[in-house]
Amino acid sequence: MLNENELKALKLKLETPKKITIVSHRNPDGDAVGSSLGLLHFLKELKHEVHFISPNDYPDFLAWIPNIKNTVIFEKETDKAIELLKSSDYIFTLDFNALHRTGEFMEKALQGLTVPMIMIDHHQAPDSYPLYTFSDINYGSTCEMIYDFINALGYNHIINKEIATCLYVGITTDSGSFRFPKTTAKTHNCVADLISKGINNSEIHNLLFDNASYSRLQLLGRALQNLKLLKEYNASYITLTQDELDTFNYKKGDTEGIVNYGLSLEGINMTACFIENKEEGIIKISFRSQGNVDVNQFARAHFNGGGHINAAGGKSFLNLEETVKKFIAILAEEKH
Predict the structure, then answer these.
(1) Is the pLDDT at 336 greater than 80, yes or no?
(2) Bridge partners of residue 121, in order along the sequence
(3) How far apart are CA 145 and CA 186, in angstroms?
(4) CA–CA separation, 242 vs 276, rounded Å?
(5) By percentage, how much of the chain surpasses pLDDT 70?
(6) CB-based contacts of 326: which residues, under 8 Å, 6+ apart?
(7) Mean pLDDT of 197-205
(8) d(C-alpha 57, C-alpha 251), whole Å
(9) Model confidence over 287-316: pLDDT tens digits?
């Protein structure tokens, strides 16, 4: 948490109406969107003028979250987004800790600003761009950090159903429905308080996880058909080509969570999901692991990425076949 002096200074700044912009990382997930909109609703309760800018569009399965329709998409509304950023008194950057995570063009826009920034994030090795930094890798989600941030400012009584709904989304998704190791007693106490604010946790879960299209389930079926075991390395991997994505009418968010299936196999402590993206000319990679297998360092060292010890992402500029070969070769090298 921010130290006592920083909290006092920030609370003082937030006591009078300001123009505030909230920014998430590119390809926003449930935690990025939930934390951004939860903070947005909270700051609006304090009478600030608040906008949320996402570098690109959010996935369909999050389209029901309160106020998400007012999100400014940087790729689509670049001029408007830049004007909002420039005219801001403060910019909150949530669920990322390096400006390049917003994408090449938005990164340049952010780097050119003199507006003070406030980072709230739970990933490793934060950059030094913010005026205030609340960075803690012990949290399982940025949404839980926003909850603690609101409490530290003394505003728990302001948390309403809308704020609680947004925060619950990110905690649920980033914790793997409360099964990942960083889900603590403190997390459950936080969620209990959010439920007491009037949210319908069962309905939220259904909207997040039980609302799939037929084509999305077919795509999952193909991904599972493509699942390969590397028993000698206690690893597995899944591949999806661009043609396979197109065949099953892929929409943003349809591959969310697919990587976890590779980790559910007996004896597997590391898995990867390789997804071809011809438009960007890359292979997008998700890594998951169990125990002390550090996929954050693995992704940083070999695949232009990073994240958490047990969950990370990366990318490859090789083709799909070459990327998989590289992955297997690294596993073989690290075993010897």
Answers:
(1) no
(2) 135
(3) 11
(4) 5
(5) 100
(6) 302, 316, 318
(7) 95
(8) 11
(9) 999 989 999 999 999 999 988 899 999 999
pLDDT band per the 50, 70, 90 thresholds, residue 224: very high
Contact 167, 41 (CB under 8 A): no
CA 24 to CA 91: how far, in whole Å?
11
Q: What is the pLDDT of residue 271?
A: 98
Q: Sketch out the chain's domains with CATH numbers.
A: 4-209 (3.90.1640.10), 217-335 (3.10.310.30)
Between 114-118, 124-128, 218-222, the lowest mean confidence (pLDDT) is in 124-128
Beta bridge partners of 154: none
Q: Output the pTM of the full model.
A: 0.90
Overall size of the chain counted in residues: 336
Contact assessment for residue 7 and residue 152, using Cβ atoms and an 8 Å cutoff: yes
Assess whether pLDDT exceeds 90 at residue 124: no
Per-residue H/E/C for the chain: CCCHHHHHHHHHHCCCCCEEEEECCCCCCHHHHHHHHHHHHHHHHCCCEEEEEECCCCCHHHCCCCCHHHCEECCCCHHHHHHHHHCCCEEEEECCCCHHHHCHHHHHHHHCCCCCEEEEECCCCCCCCCCEEEECCCCCCHHHHHHHHHHHCCCHHHCCHHHHHHHHHHHHHHCCCCCCCCCCHHHHHHHHHHHHCCCCHHHHHHHHHCCCCHHHHHHHHHHHHCCEEEHHHCEEEEEECHHHHHHCCCCCCCCCCCHHHHHCCCCCCEEEEEEEECCCCEEEEEEEECCCCCHHHHHHHHCCCEECCCEEEEEECCCHHHHHHHHHHHHHHHHC
111 half-sphere exposure, CB direction, 13 A CA radius: 12
**pLDDT of res. 3:** 86
How far, in Å, are 119, 169, 247, 274 from residue 285 at the CA level? 25, 23, 20, 5
